[in-house]
């Protein structure tokens, strides 16, 4: 209840009917087209189409009227509260300590980043719930061996993939039961196969749909090439030289203008290639990186530091928020590092470290945006950070 109230209050402060998030119009437009025609649009943005999960969710929760923004935001609040419950349940399964689980849920209820992702029309709220559900089901399927739970874990991750395609990188982790030596190999193999099958059953029909419509393999979305261009072309080098919101606004306008002009030229010289703009931009970015290979390592290092940055951008937030959130994340990183080091279930701690590393590598390779880290890293930071804090609290002498 605390989690839901906190989210509704936060949404109320922002506005139940306001739409300020940059990608919101794309989600709402796709949802409107889906509700009116029964078909997902071929393009949700000028250069690509997004995964369908969140737009489909908007259609369902608004009863086919995605322009009901207040309803959609209220649904996000419910999702946010459910994420807190799932995180507490995960904590109980990992640490088997009711007090730690309760504290983890309470921390998630007021965690600023979790509150923020519920305030607008954006996919993080849904994506976070699907990821946490997949994690809980996968953990439970091995602690209490169940192919049905493993299948459900795979299905939940499959829905997460259809919400944000970067989750494709996590699908191999569904095979982790193979490493659980508590179980006979036959049981481990069944669990791993069930998890992978669950994910395949959800994603494969959408992939088949893409093949029928576009006559090529597109696992989830064709936005990868365009996103790779944004994160690896000459434009990203210019991005890391920006020093103000005004410069950023000029940069993003120039980037979009550049892409439109390139595509217009391509349409005149190679109309067939122009029908695949995201692929075209991806090839340009690869060519630029190959042509400037000596700069690539420095760019990767800069993007990695950007991913690890503890504070939000001062271009968009007041100094007080930047500093306070920076202190919060610095503490969370420190506590989580300790928690991962002393956690009793070493296999799960190792799994968490692999998840952190894998998601960082994927985003550094493609595009780093600070909020992209939240649904992947913050659950791990809270789980192990709260656990470490509880163990440190036990070292404080009782003054009674």
Number of strands: 0
Average pLDDT: 94
Q: What is the terminal-to-terminal distance? A: 33 Å
The number of helical elements comes to: 18
Principal-axes geometry comes out as globular
The SSE order reads HHHHHHHHHHHHHHHHHH
Q: What structural class do helix, strand and pairing data support?
A: mainly alpha
- Spatial extent as radius of gyration: 22 Å
Low-confidence stretches: none
- What about the largest sheet? none
Give the helix proportion (percent range): over 70%
Strand content: under 5%
Word description of this protein:
The protein is mostly helical and 400 residues long. The chain is 72% helix and 0% strand. It contains 18 helices and no strands. It has helices at 2-14, 24-37, 53-61, 69-95, 98-110, 112-116, 124-143, 147-161, 185-214, 224-232, 234-239, 245-269, 271-274, 277-291, 293-308, 319-342, 346-365, 373-394. The model has no long low-confidence stretch (mean pLDDT 94).
Give a brief rundown of this model:
By secondary structure, the protein is mainly α.
Topology:
Layout (H helix, E strand, L loop, with lengths): L1 H13 L9 H14 L15 H9 L7 H27 L2 H13 L1 H5 L7 H20 L3 H15 L23 H30 L9 H9 L1 H6 L5 H25 L1 H4 L2 H15 L1 H16 L10 H24 L3 H20 L7 H22 L6
Any descriptors?
400 residues, mainly alpha
């Amino acid at each position: 209840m605390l989690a839901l109230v906190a989210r509704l209050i936060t949404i109320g402060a922002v506005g139940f009917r306001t739409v300020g998030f940059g990608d919101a119009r794309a989600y709402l437009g796709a949802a409107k087209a889906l509700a009116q025609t029964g078909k997902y649009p071929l393009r949700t943005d000028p250069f690509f189409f997004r995964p369908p999960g969140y737009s489909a969710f908007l259609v369902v929760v608004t009863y086919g009227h995605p322009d009901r923004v207040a309803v959609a935001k209220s649904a996000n609040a419910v999702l946010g509260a459910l994420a807190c419950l799932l995180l507490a349940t995960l904590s109980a399964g990992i640490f088997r300590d009711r007090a730690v689980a309760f504290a983890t849920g309470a921390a998630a209820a007021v965690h600023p980043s979790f509150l923020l992702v519920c305030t607008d029309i954006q996919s993080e709220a849904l994506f976070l719930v699907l990821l946490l559900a997949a994690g809980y089901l996968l953990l439970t399927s091995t602690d209490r061996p169940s192919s049905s739970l493993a299948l459900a874990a795979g299905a939940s991750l499959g829905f997460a993939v259809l919400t944000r395609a970067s989750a494709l990188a996590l699908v191999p982790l569904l095979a982790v039961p193979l490493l659980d030596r508590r179980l006979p190999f036959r049981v481990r193999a069944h669990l791993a196969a069930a998890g992978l099958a669950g994910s395949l059953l959800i994603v494969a029909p959408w992939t088949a749909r893409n093949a029928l419509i576009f006559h090529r393999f597109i696992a989830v979305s064709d936005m990868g090439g365009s996103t790779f261009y944004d994160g690896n072309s000459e434009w990203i080098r210019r991005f890391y030289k920006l020093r103000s919101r005004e410069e950023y606004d000029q940069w993003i306008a120039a980037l979009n203008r550049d892409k439109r002009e390139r595509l217009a030229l391509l349409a005149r010289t190679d109309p067939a290639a122009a029908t695949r703009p995201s692929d075209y931009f991806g090839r340009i970015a690869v060519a630029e990186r190959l042509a400037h290979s000596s700069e690539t390592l420095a760019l990767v290092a800069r993007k990695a530091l950007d991913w690890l940055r503890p504070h939000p951008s001062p271009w968009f937030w007041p100094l007080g928020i930047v500093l306070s959130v920076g202190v919060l994340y610095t503490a969370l990183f420190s506590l989580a590092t300790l928690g991962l080091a002393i956690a009793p279930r070493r296999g799960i701690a190792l799994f968490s470290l692999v998840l952190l590393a894998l998601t960082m590598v994927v985003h550094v390779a493609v595009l780093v945006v600070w909020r992209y880290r939240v649904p992947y890293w913050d659950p791990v930071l809270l789980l192990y950070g709260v656990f470490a804090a509880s163990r440190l609290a036990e070292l404080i002498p009782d003054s009674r």
